[in-house]
């Protein structure tokens, strides 16, 4: 059996710590980097279990890209809206659109209209993903500060509410909902352009920890085939939080050695399903597979079952979905891509793995 790997999407900054649970079932996880040699991206850690690479390297244009990125920093809203009218750089003054700015910095190319559009789309996509990566980090830092502040508010509230008169004037601490800095559809479209331009043979399983991105592709699949993707299985995942890197790697290796036979059957069945699609025995086969994997994860001596998450904390599951079309067809349809598509030897049916704490309704 070939190694079962997965391509993480659409984030461009992923570390092993992000995908410890997924790596129990996959040999290795890859992800795209917006820029080659990117020091801010979390490169492979541990035993090279999670590895990033740029599907469309800039090469000699890397310095130009960094120049453009610096000019755009602080003007993200204008970039996402396609307008840069508020930019005051003398070098870029007069440029009103992202396309115009890219052209002014990269220079014009002797090419067809379609080639120019594809060239500009890739520049915009990589810029957007890189800016989103930076904004997400800044948003997370702010969220951490707000969380710390909320904890202080809660302690103060608990301390002061014993005073009956003062308690009447107190209001409970407010929560700070986390909102993504960029709309998921925009991020996924940018990532999709990189996927379609990638000439390497990418893993044929997509995986994400954000159900919203999975749902976007499910809707795309439904628009093509008039039916929802089939959920093959829903596998409860053990708690891997709090482990240091060495402990996790040791436990993971022991688990995969202990469950080698079951994991091989899992990989073979997944590959067969991706190639053949839904057959008469597909649902039955996957019901048995889900039971075997659930039993393996629940009874393994590798994980301390007594230290699992608190009862009030939702348990994450890995949900596997079968789509009616190959992955490159789904991505091209979502991106409204009109150019030539490189199938990259993808199987006839896309497999999408979504880590979720709540059930997604599919057919």
TrEMBL record:
It comes from the Bacteria. This is Uncharacterized protein. It comes from Candidatus Desulfobia pelagia. The lineage of its organism: Bacteria, Pseudomonadati, Thermodesulfobacteriota, Desulfobulbia, Desulfobulbales.
């Amino acid at each position: 059996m070939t190694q079962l790997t997965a391509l993480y999407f659409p984030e461009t900054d992923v570390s092993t710590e992000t995908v410890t649970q997924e790596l129990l079932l996959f040999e290795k996880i890859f992800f795209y980097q917006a820029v080659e040699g990117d020091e801010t991206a979390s490169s492979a850690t541990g035993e090279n279990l999670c590895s990033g690479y740029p599907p469309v390297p800039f090469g000699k244009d890397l310095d130009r890209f960094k120049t453009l990125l610096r000019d755009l920093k602080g003007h993200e809203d204008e970039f996402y809206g396609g307008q840069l009218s508020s930019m005051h750089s003398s070098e870029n003054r007069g440029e009103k659109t992202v396309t115009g700015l890219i052209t002014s910095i990269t220079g014009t190319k002797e090419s067809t209209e379609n080639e120019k559009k594809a060239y500009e789309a890739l520049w915009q996509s990589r810029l957007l993903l890189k800016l989103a990566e930076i904004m997400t980090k800044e948003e997370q830092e702010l969220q951490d500060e707000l969380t710390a502040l909320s904890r202080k508010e809660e302690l103060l509230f608990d301390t002061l509410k014993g005073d009956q008169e003062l308690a009447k004037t107190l209001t409970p601490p407010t929560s700070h909902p986390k909102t993504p800095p960029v709309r998921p559809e925009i991020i996924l479209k940018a990532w999709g352009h990189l996927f379609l331009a990638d000439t390497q043979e990418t893993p044929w399983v997509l995986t994400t920890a954000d159900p919203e991105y999975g749902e976007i592709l499910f809707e795309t699949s439904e628009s093509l085939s008039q039916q929802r993707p089939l959920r093959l299985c829903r596998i409860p995942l053990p708690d891997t939080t709090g482990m240091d890197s060495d402990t996790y790697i040791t436990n993971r290796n022991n688990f995969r050695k202990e469950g080698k036979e079951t994991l091989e059957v899992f990989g073979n069945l997944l590959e067969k399903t991706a190639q053949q699609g839904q057959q008469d025995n597909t649902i039955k086969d996957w019901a048995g597979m889900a039971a075997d994997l659930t039993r393996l994860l629940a009874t393994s001596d590798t994980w301390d079952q007594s230290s699992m998450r608190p009862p009030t904390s939702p348990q994450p599951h890995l949900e596997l979905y079968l789509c009616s079309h190959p992955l490159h067809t789904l991505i091209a349809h979502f991106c409204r891509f009109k150019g030539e598509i490189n199938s990259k030897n993808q199987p006839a049916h896309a497999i999408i793995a979504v880590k979720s704490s709540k059930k997604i309704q599919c057919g």
